[in-house]
Write a structure and sequence with these properties.
single chain; about 300 residues; alpha/beta; Spermidine Synthase, Chain: A, domain 2; Rossmann fold; 7-stranded mixed sheet; globular
Length: about 300
């Protein structure tokens, strides 16, 4: 067991009445950007960790679980992705995994906070693993909503790797029905859209159900899925959307076949069995999503904002 006398602790509020504690051995950076607070610390359990506004974003030990979950299903469902765009993704790991697709010709990464990108390149180069130097990758420091609204480009894969849409978050207006309609209009035929969509645990799932049901108003296929990310100490939820293909129809054999044909290096987390597990969401989450749908149909309790953010 490592010695504890030099440890400090950071407390992460994960909900009303709940905090999680992480020991830290070293602080590489602590400060404020124009948009958010940033910390890069060393954990005796998880290695280096990136923290934004007091929330763990990723850790050296298990970031592959989060990023495989976010990127791989969208690429595998598309089957032949050549163009992609990332909304957010400051550490560069999302770009890294998109670039691992043999067919990928271009990856655009749009992040509003250039300081986080620079800090990640300095302190967390393992995350991007050379992605920013890849000639197929284009980094743009800009407001993601404005950029994708104005670009004439369409994409095979769109990934939203943004912070949660809390009222004081810079990503608040990137989870609205209006914005998801913009996303849909920028997908090529058979295009896929995947996003991180808050927690999927039984005691903290309202935000996910609202995001899911906002997306359901826009896309033909809207499928929630979950992965347990140890550094988050919870099941993290995602949503995969398409107007042409349903991830629930992919068999284990087909997923493994597409991975072998498409990906340059076998993913550490994602394969056919994991795909089936991820999309087999528990009954409590299915029930919560359905209940949220019924609330919308029955009494319009939640109004989905056009410009100011999703209803939560």
């Amino acid at each position: 067991m490592p010695k504890t006398q030099n440890w400090q602790w950071y407390l992460e509020k994960v909900g009303e009445g709940e905090v999680h504690m992480h020991a830290t051995e070293k602080t590489f950076y602590s400060g404020e950007t124009k948009f958010q607070s940033v910390g890069v610390v060393q954990s005796p359990v998880y290695g280096k960790m990136l923290i934004l506004d007091g929330d763990t974003q990723s850790s050296q030990l298990d970031e592959f679980i989060y990023h495989d979950s976010l990127v791989m299903p969208a690429c595998i469902l598309n089957g032949n992705p050549k163009s992609s765009i990332i909304l957010g993704g400051g550490e560069g790991a999302t770009a890294r995994d998109l670039l691992a697709c043999k067919t990928m010709e271009s990856v655009e990464m749009i992040d509003i906070d250039d300081e986080v990108v620079v800090l990640s390149q300095k302190y967390l180069p393992e995350w991007s693993a050379g992605a920013f130097e890849d000639k197929r990758c284009k980094l743009v420091i800009a407001d993601a909503r404005k950029y994708i609204t104005e670009t004439p480009q369409k994409y095979d894969v769109i990934i939203s790797d943004l912070t949660e849409p809390l009222p004081d978050s810079p990503s608040h207006n990137l989870f609205t029905k209006e914005f998801f309609e913009i996303i849909s209009s920028h997908l090529n035929p058979n295009g896929t859209f995947a996003l991180q969509a808050s927690t999927g645990d039984v005691h903290n799932l309202e935000l996910h159900t609202i995001i899911h049901n906002t997306l359901k108003q826009v896309f033909k296929y809207t499928r929630s899925y979950i992965s347990r990310v140890p550094a988050y100490d919870t099941f993290w939820a995602f949503v995969l959307c398409s107007n042409d293909a349903d991830p629930l129809l992919l068999t284990e054999t087909e997923v493994d076949k597409r991975i072998a044909n498409l990906v340059t290096k076998e993913p550490k987390y994602y394969d056919g069995i994991t795909h089936k597990h991820m999309f087999s969401i528990p009954k409590y989450l299915r029930a919560a999503i359905s209940a949220q749908t019924q609330v919308l149909q029955d009494n319009k309790k939640f109004e989905f904002a056009e410009t100011t953010g999703a209803a939560f």
